[in-house]
Structure to design on (455 residues):
């Protein structure tokens, strides 16, 4: 089976100077495996959200202090390594870079499970962020070389399933593991190490990534880079020149993604604690329920988002993908505002389920749009900017933004529900306005790219 998959990965000439796409079965296998890598990334990143209570208890942290561990520590390391490694991804083996990163962030997650002091936990968390910075640029560039453009929304729906599946998996796995280790007495190990329940959760969570790295190394080949004008790394000035020529599309879209990610990561980080503080549901209960809801909402939203993007593409291909994003965000916002204001946890769970379904509908069109109008030799670096908007801005400031509203505006942890609703109500219109302003410039960039590829 492995040999068959490897042989299918080799490109075949369709004619002089041309290449066919990889065999369909191998291409979709690779997309699914990249989705699983993304899932492991988000599990290792997000598992800390469910461990807020135990970590605060043992390390004596405030809401703002724990938010810095969840967000800013990870994000600062991510941004320091993201751009230089994304330039490597545009000229070197993306598979090797990605497999190395997966191995390192899995080991770093396990190091979090051995941390005895706050600085050790911060250092291990920073290593997770540094290693995970290669995931997006490598994966998104590889996907764009594995499937034709007309199938990209579907491919990125599968990829996005790994991202949000990892968010849900962190809740489900974390809740199950916390239940399994509940009441566990501190375990003393050689070297003065003391392992508590949350340490065990992190140790177990890091293991599967090592196995997945081996599967990735053995069964996936580096895809042929398509529509590429140069094999060498593109000078940074050329990348900046391209961005300058297309800023009317990239700037508002990336700003909308950044603002949306601040909201998304803020909700993701504090939603479990919201259920505990507002309704009395502990992490052992809310983790599987909330994670299970996301596991259902994600594929449903991605499927509906793919259908919407493909439907609009047949009628208005020049701007369909961003129009699909605009409609999906507009549907999601009121549902996410209503979620923390519900009178009981079941209604909150249902409102969150519907809101997250609509939110997930944005991913296929958004991801495909960026890859379609970005030259192949710049995809890793442009993807790094895109992921900077998500992981650094969103992941770095989202958890802290909510925590600061709770600590500094309301001065009451019990008011978390109003901090969540108010923040979403404030940023929602900004997101919609930014996406709307990017629609026409995207259409022009799409037409230029199509003209260039046909010449």
């Amino acid at each position: 089976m492995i040999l068959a998959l490897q042989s299918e990965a080799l490109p075949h000439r369709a004619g002089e100077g041309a290449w066919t796409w990889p065999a369909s079965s191998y291409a979709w296998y690779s997309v699914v495996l990249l989705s699983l890598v993304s899932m492991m990334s988000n599990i290792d990143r997000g598992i800390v959200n469910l461990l807020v209570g135990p970590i605060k208890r043992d390390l004596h942290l405030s809401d703002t202090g724990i938010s810095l561990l969840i967000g800013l520590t990870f994000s600062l390391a991510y941004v320091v390594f993201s751009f230089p490694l994304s330039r490597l991804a545009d000229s070197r083996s993306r598979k090797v870079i990605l497999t190395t990163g997966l191995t390192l962030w899995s080991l770093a997650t396990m190091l979090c499970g051995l941390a005895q002091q706050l600085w050790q936990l911060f250092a291990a968390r920073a290593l997770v962020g540094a290693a995970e910075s290669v995931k997006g640029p490598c994966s998104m560039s590889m996907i764009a070389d594995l499937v034709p453009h007309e199938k990209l929304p579907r491919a990125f729906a599968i990829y996005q399933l790994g991202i949000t599946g990892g968010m849900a998996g962190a809740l489900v796995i974390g809740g199950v593991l916390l239940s399994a280790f509940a009441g566990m007495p501190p375990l003393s190990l050689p070297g003065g190490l003391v392992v508590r329940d949350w340490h065990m959760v992190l140790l177990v969570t890091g293991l599967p990534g090592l196995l997945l790295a081996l599967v990735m190394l053995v069964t996936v080949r580096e895809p042929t880079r398509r529509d590429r004008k140069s094999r060498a790394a593109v000078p940074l000035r050329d990348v900046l020149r391209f961005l300058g020529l297309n800023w009317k599309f990239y700037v508002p879209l990336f700003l909308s993604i950044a603002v949306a990610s601040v909201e998304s990561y803020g909700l993701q980080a504090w939603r479990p604690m919201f259920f505990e503080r507002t309704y009395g549901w502990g992490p052992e209960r809310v983790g599987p329920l909330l994670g299970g809801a996301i596991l259902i909402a994600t594929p449903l939203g991605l499927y509906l988002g793919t259908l919407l993007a493909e439907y609009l593409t047949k009628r208005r291909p020049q701007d369909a993908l961003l129009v699909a994003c605009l409609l999906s965000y507009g549907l999601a916002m009121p549902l996410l505002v209503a979620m923390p204001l519900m009178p009981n946890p079941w209604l909150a769970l249902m409102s969150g389920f519907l809101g997250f379904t609509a939110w997930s509908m944005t991913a296929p069109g958004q991801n495909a749009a960026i890859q379609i109008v970005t030259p192949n030799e710049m995809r890793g670096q442009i993807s790094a900017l895109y992921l900077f908007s998500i992981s650094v801005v969103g992941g770095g400031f989202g958890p802290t933004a909510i925590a600061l509203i709770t600590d500094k505006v309301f001065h009451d942890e019990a008011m978390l529900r109003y901090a969540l609703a108010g923040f979403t109500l404030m940023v929602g219109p900004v997101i919609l306005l930014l996406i709307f302003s990017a629609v026409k410039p995207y259409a022009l960039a799409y037409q230029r790219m199509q003209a260039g590829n046909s010449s």
About this structure: The CA atoms of residues 250 and 289 lie 37 Å apart.
